[in-house]
Structures are given as C-alpha cells and as structure tokens.
Amino acid sequence: MSFSVYRRILGIRDARNALLLGLLIRTPMWAGAIILTLHVVTTLGHSYSAAGLLTTCSTVALAVSAPWRGRLLDVRGLRRTVLPQLVVLAVVWSIAPWVGYWLLLPLAFVGGLFVVPTFSIVRQVLISSVEDRHRTAALSLDSFATELTFMVGPVVGVLAATYLDTRWALFGAEMLTVLGGVLVWVLNPQLIREDEQATEHVGWRSWVSPLVVAVLAASAASTVVLTGTDLGIVAALRSMGHPESIGWVLAIWGLGSAVGALVYGAMHRPVPVFWLLALLAAATLPVALAPNRFWLTALLFVAGLFCAPTITATIDHLSRVVPARARGEVMGWHGSALTMGSALGAPVAGVAIDRGGWEAGFLVTAALGLAVALAGLVASARRHAAVPLVPAPEPGPHPAAERSAA
C-alpha cells in the first residue's frame, strides 16, 4: 500500500483540473437538491410526499437520459454534447424557482433529462490522463472528492435556504451548476487518449456481455444498501430520541467512505467487485444490532469504509472491459444503475422500517446486497471453472534461439 500515488496523480495537470472541476460543480449540485426539497415544503407549502414526488421525477429523468448523454459524448464529443444541455438548463432553472408546484414538476423532469454528465466527464478525463496502473487510485481520489462535496453541499444548501428566500437560493445553486458546465465547455478536457481517438465508435452489441450486466447489477445493489442505510439512520436516531444528531452521524458515515476510498486507491492490488459488495453488505448488517447512538455511529463508520471502494471498483472494472469509444455510454448506464438502485432501495427500506422497525431497514437492504454479491461470486467461479485448460506446449527452442539459428 502506497499513498504516494496520489501525489503523482495530483501532479498531472489534466487530472488535477478534473478533480477541481468535480468539486466546483458537485457542491452546488448537492446544495440545489436539498434546497429544492425545502423550497417545495416551505415556500410552496406542500408536503414532504410532494417533495419526494418531485425528486422521483428528476431521478427518473436522470436514469433515462444518462446512457443517451454518455453516447453523445462518445459520438459527438464534449463541446457539441454539453452546449445544448447548458442552454436548456439555463432556461429551465431561470423559470423553475418562480413557478408553482405543478409546473415545477415537468420543469424538474426536463432539467433532469439535460443535466450535464459531469460525473462521467470527470471520470473519463481521469482515466485518459493517468497510466492504466494508476486508474484505480485516480478513480478512488474522485470518490474521495465526491464524498467531500456530499458532506459540504447539503450543509451549504440548508444555510442558503435558511437565510435567503428559497427561490433565490435555488436559482443561485442551479446557476452555479450551469456555470460549472460552462467552465467544462471552455476547458474542453480530453476524454480519451490520442492513441484511442483513431478508433471508431462501436455499437452496444459489441460490448454488452454477461460480465458487464453483472457489474451493473452490483452497482445497483450497492445503492440499494446505501439508500437503506441512509433511511435507516434517520429512523434509528428518531427512535433513539436523537433526531438532532442525524446530520453529523451521516457525516461520519460519509467520512468512513472517504477514508475507505483513499485506502482502496493506495492498495497495490484491487479487490474484485463482488467481494467488495459482499463486504459492504456484511458490514452493514451489524448496524441493526446497535444498542445506542455511540455504537450506531461507530458501526456506520466501519460500514462506510466499503461504500466508496465498491462504487469505485464497479467504475474501474467497466472502464477496463469496454472499448474506449464506448466508455461514455457505459458510464451512463452505470449512472442509471446507481439511480435505479436508489429508487428501489428507498421503498424497500421504507416498507421494512414501517413493518419491522429501524433495524429492518438495515437488515433487508443489506441482505439484498449480500444476495447479489453471492450470486455474482458463484457465477464468477462457474465461469472460471468452465474455461478449459489448455495443455502446455511441448518444450522447444526459445524464440530468441530460433531467430539466432535463422
């Protein structure tokens, strides 16, 4: 294990710029998400269910459009893909903060359809700018940065919505996100290496395989576990009489994930995807046994250690098994898998908590993640066992000896 790899990555200009762009764009993006919820509940006077419906509309739009936007990056390039999206987003979020709830719904859906694929762009830039042997570390560094923005963004959003009119707070956060997209367009970072640009874009039939589908399933299962944990934390602390602790307990869980990202990236050999998913699920199960807030927080930190590494491993694996000219599209499918896992995990955890208490939220979603991990491990073992052994060739002269003889 060596953390010096991060110094080498940060010494590469394109990689450093990509990470900074990620920080600048994702922080107002997370802030905007929480401001939108508070805007619906406070300024518009609707229920949390209505706010949840709005989030669902935006989430569905993201899941539907992510592969399409990724394919555009592969086929048309960054600038021709991003420019129309920036125009649409600027128009949508110039109008959305000032309208009523029922008009806000379709506007949020359109905004979700045209979100600039910054996650995919940042990761592709990192992949293209570092050596293959440093790819895992670079993606882990991106996961670490993402965890930081996830911890900071919502806090900034709550403060903005508290001290400003939510309409102006929402407008400001979304416009900052658009400005970040403009900066991406101006810089126009390289998404694939020069030696890969000569190849033509390939259709999905050339790269879709059982392995790719299995990794996408693992991606979805990981966010089922994470969403269940998110809701379980809220339910557990409310049940224990500590609702005021929800924010900092979530932050400690995120800190565990950030630490896990740095450790995983510094490892000399990456851990296979399904083993990481199994570790994430197995580490989440004991959280259901926490007798008080202290043990809940400690166990969540341990479970968090496997969050970012699991997501990073799925991205890393997919980037290595698909052609470079299809990387944007497969990153889009990866984003859709994560989104669909969250969409599935929320109602599953909710029903489990309603029927079995907060403990059931952790147990049920972790069990689903563990089931997918075990199925993937069994399938991998069978695939390796099915590969026929090739008999060793008869000993012969070394190739160099043959050339000398010639």
Task: Describe the protein's topology.
Blueprint: H1 4-10, H2 13-43, H3 48-76, H4 78-95, H5 101-113, H6 118-129, H7 135-163, H8 166-187, H9 194-197, H10 210-240, H11 246-266, H12 273-284, H13 293-304, H14 307-321, H15 327-356, H16 358-386, H17 399-405
Helix pairs in contact: 2-3, 2-6, 2-7, 2-8, 3-4, 3-5, 3-15, 4-5, 4-8, 6-7, 7-8, 7-11, 7-14, 10-12, 10-14, 10-15, 10-16, 11-13, 11-14, 12-13, 12-14, 12-16, 14-15, 15-16
In short:
The chain is mainly alpha-helical. Helix content is 79%, strand content 0%.
Descriptive account of the structure:
- With about 400 residues, the chain is mainly α.
- It has 17 helices and no strands.
- The chain folds into two domains: about 1-190, Up-down Bundle (Growth Hormone, Chain: A), CATH 1.20.1250; about 205-380, MFS general substrate transporter like domains (Growth Hormone, Chain: A).
- It has helices at about 5-10, 15-45, 50-75, 80-95, 100-115, 120-130, 135-165, 165-185, 195, 210-240, 245-265, 275-285, 295-305, 305-320, 325-355, 360-385, 400-405.
- The longest helix has about 30 residues, at about 15-45.
- Residues about 385-405 have low confidence and may be disordered.
- Keywords: Membrane, Transmembrane, Transmembrane helix.
- It is found in: Cell membrane.
- GO terms for molecular function: transmembrane transporter activity.
